[in-house]
Amino acid sequence: MAQRLRIAIGSVVVGTAVLALKYFAYRLTGSVALYSDALESVVNVASALVALGAVWYSAKPADSNHPYGHHKIEYFAAVFVGVLIVLAALSIGREAWFAFVDPKPVDFNAEGLAVNGAASIINGIWAYVLISQGRRHRSISLVADGRHLVTDVVSSLGVLAGVALVMLTGWRALDSLLASLVALNILWSGWVLMKESFGGLMDEAAAPDVQEKIREIISAAGEGALEAHDLRTRPAGRVTFVDFHLVVPGDMTVREAHDICDRIEEAIGEAVPGARTTIHVEPEHKAKHSGIVVL
């Protein structure tokens, strides 16, 4: 928890610093494309603040009102970030249109491009930290924040390349066109992020490879049982809930069946970090002969 919280706080600090650099680059040049890049950084700071709140809240222990914990708050946070991204894209598109119909003088200079480029490098490094650490700690809000920063870096590189072309060609309409492309790219990233987050809120099953791993573990660690069926999984932030029915011989004692369940739960917990397994034990006449065969 402490590490995830420190990373989330670091995102707020880095996002604020990058915003200041990009806004300074815009003030040096007056480019609407660089303005759109700076405006996206406002969303980055807001996203970092939302991620910070989600990381803090998701770590709260389960209580009587939330017996399964508070992990899903990270999905809500990711959806909120997606909405912010979409709003930023619409705002950038608006500025691009006004700049196209009523162009303003633009002072393209190397200093402004250099400042913006430095901000993009910082963003790129921090995006790598967020995604790698977010996956390590199974935090969807940190991963979402990092993926948004990757989109920001890609947009910034496109803007820098385009602004350089404007400086070389003198075609100022390209500045507005670049801002529009940035808006479309941000809009797409916001949609993808919200789509994935809605999947978590709708209790989509764990990834196919995770489900297959769980099946293999049940088969290998369930010695003494006959079969398992009705396997269900659902990720919720850092936790993966697993439940299934385990069929055992009718004359097996409760203690023996409990020992098998403990062995399976421990094996799943080692292979799937954060797994919480619930097993319903059934006698052999409940076998469906279509589930997981225990080796």
CATH class group of the largest domain: Mainly Alpha
Which architecture of the largest domain does the CATH hierarchy give at level 2? Up-down Bundle
Biggest β-sheet description: 4 strands, mixed
Question: Can you give the mean pLDDT?
Answer: 82
Derived from helix and strand composition plus strand pairing, the structural class reads alpha+beta
Helix share, percent: 55-70%
Q: What is the succession of H and E elements?
A: HHHHHHHEEHEE
CATH third-level topology of the largest domain: Alpha-lytic protease prodomain-like
Transmembrane segments: 7-26, 38-59, 75-93, 113-131, 152-171, 177-194
Subcellular location: Cell membrane
Domain Cation efflux protein cytoplasmic: 208-284
InterPro entries: Cation_efflux (IPR002524), Cation_efflux_CTD (IPR027470), Cation_efflux_CTD_sf (IPR036837), Cation_efflux_TM (IPR058533), Cation_efflux_TMD_sf (IPR027469), CDF_Transporter (IPR050291)
